[in-house]
Amino acid sequence: MILFAHGARAAGWAAPFERLRGLVAAREPDVDVSLAFLELMTPRLPERAAELVAQGVTDLTVVPVFLGQGGHVLRDLPLMIDQVRADHPQLTVRVAEAAGENAAVLQAIADYCSGSVP
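^ that's the sequence the OP posted. Answer follows.
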């Protein structure tokens, strides 16, 4: 599983995504859970997918850790997925919906926001 995030110049920006990676890995001990980025950070998605294929992975789930389905999820991610599929035709690739499009994620964020009201 690859958690796919935007990336940023500031190294500390990735800290919450690393924590998320750790939480998912703890829930899925038999799954290799890693991070990959669109830009500005490494590894980028195609490189991480290639590393996993080299390790013998044949099924891959990409989870976009984006709140909305803007241009990166609607345009950039499909291009990267097409590249991964072309480079590794033996790899089965599944792409989950963007995290922020999921009702349970939105409910959790709403719960957090409501909990912040005095």
